[in-house]
Automatic annotation (TrEMBL), chains A, B, C, D:
It comes from Caldiarchaeum subterraneum. Residues 5-128 form the Semialdehyde dehydrogenase NAD-binding domain. The active site is at residues 147, 240. The gene is asd. GO terms for biological process: methionine biosynthetic process; threonine biosynthetic process. This is Aspartate-semialdehyde dehydrogenase.
């Protein structure tokens, strides 16, 4: 099978470091280029920001390139650019013929851009054919959702399929790494909770309806679920916890909900994709789990499973706690898994 | 006016220290006795657990007494005993003629025991007459709610009065001081969220209906509001934050909700009681407030006001953040204010 | 007595907020002007960075002025500018006739600039006469030391006077507020210790010798004490702890050292200056004190006393823990007290 | 080669969990028994305290045995009992014929008990022959030092060998896991530094002299190095940082010190023992490393190398930062490596 060379756009940030860690020994994809901004021309190891462990030696020595399709040689690209940089650069790469798999927010809600959680809506990827035609691009843009959205929609999907979901009220407790580096000042968050993350609630509320919706007649039909989100920042490092309340169409009980979640598998598991965890949802039965620090790396592929616990059901009212790794399932890992599905669907060429 | 001598039962814990701080210069109440358990016979300053600032000199030198009505000389008592100790000791004190004002959980849900938030249901105090008769006690027991309940019901009350409240979904982010000392191990909570506090959710759900209910025909008629709570522990020191979603009977808008909350005053304010804050609810208009560490001491009587912010309204769906000081409004301060109302109602004698 | 109008240069940062808090009700000094940089022209309340409590109303409404002597009308100025801004602005203010009391690092080690800890070397203030003549300034610059230096030299001074001090080895554990706002990223410091603060160790080592030295013949004669410092950052909010080991010329015992420290008073105490704490050093006898969070506000003027504990003496080897408030005694408070001494010495005019 | 069956005494605590993790796939040693106290008779997975990841399945199912030599079947035992329990149990096991490798404090300073850091003083193990004869035991007790001692003496040893070391002043910043579970209350340490750990300083000061000393004529001759320690607790999870100042006999420079540390290897490396890291000391050249959270797992065997950085040398005055994993190199790992050396020396039988 072909090995694909990939470029990582915006590789020097927190998420970029996780792309490198997950792609370094990837069986299909090979890191061919890293791009940055202020650090162009420097070695990657000198450009990297934040507190990550040292990159592997050959990656450390790579030169940081400008985020310019003319300077990048790769079969396709991953983008973890900041929103504004993504808005400018991603169409240029798509126009220049690159498939772009992006966890940036810039194009998620565009009518012709797939927003993918590989277990939930892989068929949305077919939109790229329409996108290419409409935009006259040789390449295309595929996006993955906000880190907080993933921890919500993954457990929602099996419940929606079996019980129907009408309304969701979610409060998040998000880790500081979600804000990147330097991100949240220590003076702001030590011993504190900040009940506000700019733009986050709207993202969760709108993205969920798109991901859970259908793809038909060349367009996305949004799901009718109502989502009311409140997003807070807490002094944890990695891992977004979500306290989820939802109202279902059919009544259930705790055991049913637990089984629906624990047994949920989908296309990435059926295809046994390299970055697919054996179980996208790990159900915890202990009274006090999942916990952010302890369970953030859950899954056979660490950080790729969402942990769910504290399932409580009163008829149509279902409550549980969800925990997902914001930089892995919520960013680098989710996007890599999306590219793996795309390869399976023939969207990366042979 | 008479000065009342008071005893504090269980005075050596975290809440006991706050009672002392708030009673030390109280215009009506004078600390006459402190009780403990392991520390009986020692000086208070040597018995006190935890990390509080030093008590005033004359309090520091007081001898810790056993929690025994025969050993205590006072006009009435405050109890911040642990639940099991309260279950045993409080009836003995009531039988021995002491009015007992307790923030312990033991008797809160008894059919003849008032559960008081002074701004909301002071008229429930009249139940003590029935309680005394029924139990054959010369004294009585009055309780105040769980620290988490207070931060919920205080903002609920004005909304209920004007808009009607049908259903409440609340997720809490509670400080470690709520678990007392030593309480939560540092290994358990540093950089972590624990989405479980034993028994807490049931307390919030049942206590709210009692407090918001009516007192009539010699019994408590519970409010019909449905409450669904999820309680978590976060690495903050003092102050319980609550993310509250509620559905009202009448639609509203953000300005209306903000005004209802900001302008809410009740009996303690009208009587200008010593421990009553000028405003029981402080409304924050900034996008990112209240924050736990910064706003926990809000109010003209520090820690006695609940801070509310991030008000978002969609028709009948109302969301906001509430923050209250778990040791002050949620324990010592709320109970002292209850005793002040009781004095006004003549329940402490002349 | 005259009331002096003062300007605060760089008033919008963390230290500036402490100047305002301490000057707001000051009996001699009245806040007349606040300067800033990006925020020039805005109201102070909108310009202020960081997490401080709200400023008093009339301060909140003041317009932020540019840091330009022509735009500032005041009897003298306090400067808490960043080093580079201080290097540029402070001489302009001195030239324009303003006495400048600065906690910035820019001119601390200049040969004609006093570096003052009011209890230790107030007589160094006389250097301003030489400074004015030499530089042809109508005003002058007086500096106060790095926040870490203060917590070292204050307890050193009484020991030096009575026992002689030859060598000091100090390891600091410094709070994040010492880095200003936004300062240290939460990702960098949560659950971590960073054993490095750029430039800090050299400051402590050189400033101590100047402060503890003599002023004679129109010049500063440095003290011969050797100081070896290691400075670390820990996840605390306010308060720099220092683990100090020193070798004295004469042997001592623990009680002697404790008494020398506890009984130490100096000119600010003798003059009963408004910002002088009754005791510059508070000695703690408990085995586990001082602690950063608990003892940071020690003193009759909160934050103006250095707490010392864990005194251990083996002949000429003396060990103890020192804790000082980096924003108060180590910045705003120490500089205000210096200005109070200067007024007493007639250096502010009548 | 023989596989040895081992028992872990006190297996349910924090250190016990690390023994299990490190022994589970050990090439020479096989976990045969786990002992506890309150949890005797329960499955290990139900008995384990604290916050560790789940043990492997066959360990999880093992029954917790009483700490009684009659109930334990093993070739030798590891002990991570609390001090008082160790004082009672370890001699019983030694008397019953078990070699006991203990990280408990009870017998470290006994005249006939080896206190081993495998790289530094493996020859001290020969004392067990005298110990057995003197005490009439078939087995014996070998101890390993306090977790804080290890991070000091490992870098001291190569400097002592080449430069001579006369005096050491050390300030530690120790993680909460060093106090076990539940250990330090979160209320005590959140946003705080506690400059005191009961008994710790004396341990560091006395153990260092024994470990760095010689074994000759059947007795331990203590090294003459003077150690002055100050031990503090900081809000980190794992990893004890130490700020070390020492005075050498010969002057040096930074490069020499860095090389002496970086190139230091000893018997465990020469024997290529299973738990020996390639380098016992990892030297960091960055200005701000090692950092507790980032570097705690340094080494080819994670947690078995001490990280050293910030080397500063002024003639005979040498300063540096040391960081070691208190539960691995400072407890379980160091003791396992000691047993590996003992096996090499024939002390475990064939």
């Amino acid at each position: 099978m072909k090995t694909y060379s990939v470029a990582i756009l915006g590789a020097t940030g927190m998420v970029g470091q996780h792309y490198i860690k997950m792609l370094y020994r990837h069986p299909w994809f090979r890191i061919a280029a890293l791009t940055g901004k202020e650090s162009v021309g420097r070695k990657y190891v000198e450009a990297v920001r934040g507190e990550a462990p040292e990159p592997p030696k050959e990656i450390a020595e790579m030169e940081v390139l400008p985020t310019d399709p003319k300077k990048v040689d790769a079969d396709f690209v991953f983008s973890c650019l900041p929103t504004e940089a993504a808005r400018e650069a991603e169409p240029k790469f798509a126009e220049a013929g690159f498939p772009v798999f992006s966890d940036a927010a810039a194009y998620r809600m565009e009518g012709d851009v797939p927003l993918i959680v590989p277990e939930i809506n892989p068929e949305h990827l077919n939109m790229v054919h329409i996108q290419r035609k409409k935009r006259g691009w040789e390449g295309y843009i595929v996006t993955t959702p906000n880190c907080t959205t993933v921890g919500l929609v993954l457990p929602l999907q099996p419940l929606k399929q079996s019980l129907g979901v009408k309304k969701v009220i979610v409060t998040t407790m998000q880790a500081v790494s979600g804000a990147g580096y330097p991100g949240v000042a220590s003076l702001s968050i030590l011993g504190n909770v900040i009940p506000y993350i700019s733009g986050e609630e709207r993202k969760v509320e709108t993205e969920a309806a798109k991901i859970l919706g259908r793809y038909g007649d060349g367009r996305f039909i949004y799901d009718s679920v109502e989502v009311y989100a409140t997003c807070t920042r807490v002094p944890t490092l990695d891992g977004h916890m979500e306290s989820i309340y939802l109202e279902t169409e059919k009544p259930a009980d705790e055991e049913t909900v637990a089984e629906l979640l624990a047994e949920y598998v989908s296309l990435p598991q059926e295809l046994n994709l390299p970055t697919a965890p054996a179980r996208p949802i790990v159900v915890r039965r202990e009274p006090d789990r999942p916990q952010t620090r302890i369970d953030v790396d859950a899954g056979t592929v660490p950080g790729m499973s969402v942990s769910v616990g504290r399932i409580r059901v009163n008829g149509e009212k279902v409550r549980f706690i969800s925990l997902s790794h914001n930089l892995i399932r919520g960013a680098a890992g989710g996007t890599i898994l999306t590219a793996e599905v795309a390869r399976h669907m023939g969207l990366l060429g042979e």
